[in-house]
Write a structure and sequence with these properties.
The complex is a heterodimer of chains A (356) and B (174).
Chain A: H1 2-36, H2 57-67, H3 78-94, E1 104-107, E2 110-113, H4 122-143, H5 147-178, H6 183-189, E3 193-194, E4 198-199, H7 202-205, H8 207-221, H9 244-269, E5 278-279, E6 282-285, E7 288-291, H10 294-320, H11 328-355
Antiparallel strand pairs in A: 1-2, 3-4, 5-6, 6-7
Helix pairs in contact in A: 1-9, 1-10, 2-9, 3-4, 3-9, 4-5, 5-8, 5-11, 8-9, 8-11, 9-10
Chain B: H1 9-34, E1 65-66, H2 81-85, E2 91-97, E3 105-113, H3 122-126, E4 132-133, E5 150-151, H4 153-156, H5 167-172
Antiparallel strand pairs in B: 1-4, 2-3, 3-5
The chains are: A mainly alpha (356), B alpha+beta (174).
Chain lengths: 356, 174
């Protein structure tokens, strides 16, 4: 019984964090792009005259989208058309189930693993969910019965296939090094040190792998510069026929996938919840020791994980607001002629080094 | 043709460095402003319009006004020069006799239809009495009907409820 309560609590905590980060990202999208472009950004939505630097704009967005007409094309496939946005959001959210956001926490005699489900195939699970997520977009494009929406859905499908291969091949390097598919064990392995003081994070083990994973991951989130499925200036994409909150769910999916990608990057390459030199009983550095309350340690680890995820979200927004969209042949050339050979090379070198 | 497929990775990194540089520079100024520091610097090039206005050039042609004599009557002598030269035909003057025998005429009505005016400033150039000027600094005169766009003499003399010309703002940039 307590197990169920604890698991429900963890699910609630993760969803709470993800949706709040989603809200912050909606705000950050406007504000960060503005600051990058020497502007101030949206700051007019107010509650009783309180503007709070435009923090209420996402609320205004949500109210607008919920109040808008829920349009459905006459020739659309009613059931699939309605199900598609739910599929997209669902598959982007379930990926968080295997992301470890902290080590074990001992509270009142219960040992709580700060991860919703420690699957021993966690990595494959995340990839499976990301791949299934594309069904939401393909089905949306198909069910709209609109040529442009269909084109967008097909683009989403082909882009997903092209970049998922690179993504998978890149991560195999880490699997070889860590000898596990469980994300929690990967994070624990990253708590070790080179020469006793340089943290053994994935980015130091696999710098090329990190870059390839980052690029392929951005392609997976379908945001600029890889927003070919959307392509708002050319085809408007798979959600061209959607309005109101159904469109809002597609928009949310993009942001949730951004968060998921940040969480994956953190987990695989930046030590997950690890803080260098912080162990379960306090700080260790050479002969230096500082004892810290284990509950506080857990709190620091969760905070560190959140901070790392937030920094990656910032980086992804920076990329999104800097680069223009690739042309379609460039997208395919980048995926198949540049990234795939490099990821295979990365895999081969990693295998060779481990073997020797 | 083959080069066409190349992704300019160097340029991508350079672009990211540029935007990140702008982000950090502006963010540092915004954070300093929160603590009341570096107030003379701006973290953006835009103006928060209704609260904050761009300084006008002193030569900017803005809404018209009619200048007054010491007794508050219009300097205008209803010579019809402005009405004649106006390329948009937006000035309507009705002339009448002035009580002072030294002054020939005065306008009984002086209307400018801002909905028609092209802000060329010919009326100001042509006026022999310096009776009409376009230096009020007023740029917002949108209205809900065409009738409301017509300025009568009272409004042009800026007597009742009208704003004083924003001289300080205009000198700022002079």
């Amino acid at each position: 019984m307590t197990e169920i309560v604890i698991t429900m609590g963890k699910i609630a905590f993760v969803l709470f964090c993800v949706f709040n980060l989603l809200y912050v990202l909606l705000w950050l999208e406007r504000k960060q792009s503005a600051v990058m472009q020497d502007r101030i950004g949206a700051n007019r939505a107010d509650i009783f005259g309180l503007r709070a630097w435009g923090l209420f704009h996402p609320i205004a967005d949500a109210i607008k989208m919920i109040c808008k007409e829920d349009f459905m094309p006459a020739a659309a496939d009613k059931f699939v058309y309605t199900a598609a946005p739910f599929l997209a959001v669902f598959f982007s959210l379930v990926g968080f189930a295997v992301i470890p956001f902290g080590d074990t926490l001992t509270l009142g005699g219960h040992t709580i693993h700060l991860q919703i489900a420690d699957l021993n195939v966690g990595l494959l699970y995340v990839f499976a969910m990301l791949s299934l997520g594309v069904y939401g977009f393909i089905l949306a494009g198909w069910a709209s019965n609109n040529n442009f929406a269909f084109l967008g859905g097909m683009r989403a499908g082909s882009q997903m296939i092209s970049y998922e291969i690179t993504m998978g091949a890149t991560v195999m390097g880490l699997v070889i090094l860590f000898q596990t598919l469980s994300l929690n064990q990967m994070v624990q392995a990253q708590g070790e040190y080179f020469f006793g003081f340089i943290p053994k994070w994935g980015v130091l083990l696999q710098p090329l792998g990190f870059l390839l994973f980052l690029i392929a991951g951005i392609a997976e989130t379908k945001r600029i510069p890889f927003d070919l499925p959307e392509g708002e200036s050319e085809i408007i994409g798979y959600f061209v026929e959607y309005s109101g909150m159904k469109f809002g769910m597609f928009m949310m999916t993009d942001f949730i996938e951004t968060i998921l990608l940040s969480a994956m990057l953190t987990t695989l390459f930046f030590g997950g919840w690890q803080i260098p030199y912080l162990h379960a009983d306090g700080f260790h550095l050479g002969g230096l020791r500082l004892a810290i309350n284990p509950v506080l340690v857990s709190f620091l680890q969760v905070a560190a994980f959140g901070l790392k995820v937030f920094c990656f979200c910032w980086l992804l927004l920076l990329i999104r607001w800097t680069l223009p969209r690739f042309r379609y042949d460039q997208l395919m050339a980048l995926g198949w002629k540049f990234m795939l050979p490099l990821s295979l090379l990365n895999l081969a070198i990693t295998g060779l080094v481990v073997l020797l | 043709m083959r080069r066409n497929h190349q992704i300019p990775l160097g340029a991508i990194v350079k672009g990211l460095a540029l935007t990140a540089g702008h982000f950090f520079r502006n963010m540092r100024i915004h954070v300093a402003h929160l603590f009341g520091r570096r107030l003379q610097e701006k973290g953006m090039v835009t103006f928060q319009y209704p609260e904050e206005r761009r300084p006008f050039s002193p030569r900017l042609r803005t809404r018209h006004r009619l200048t007054m004599r010491a007794d508050g009557s219009p300097r205008c002598v209803a010579c019809m020069m402005c009405e004649t030269i106006c390329p948009a035909n937006c000035i309507y003057i009705t002339a009448g006799e002035h009580p002072d025998p030294h002054i020939e005429k005065q306008p009984l009505k002086f209307d400018i239809d801002l909905g028609v005016c092209v802000f060329c400033g010919f009326c100001v150039e042509v006026c022999p009495e310096d009776a009409i000027r376009m230096d009020t600094g007023i740029l917002e005169f949108a209205a809900y009907s065409r009738q409301e766009m017509i300025l009568t003499m009272d409004k042009l003399l800026m007597k009742e409820g009208a704003q004083e010309p924003d001289r300080a703002l205009m000198k700022e940039n002079a």
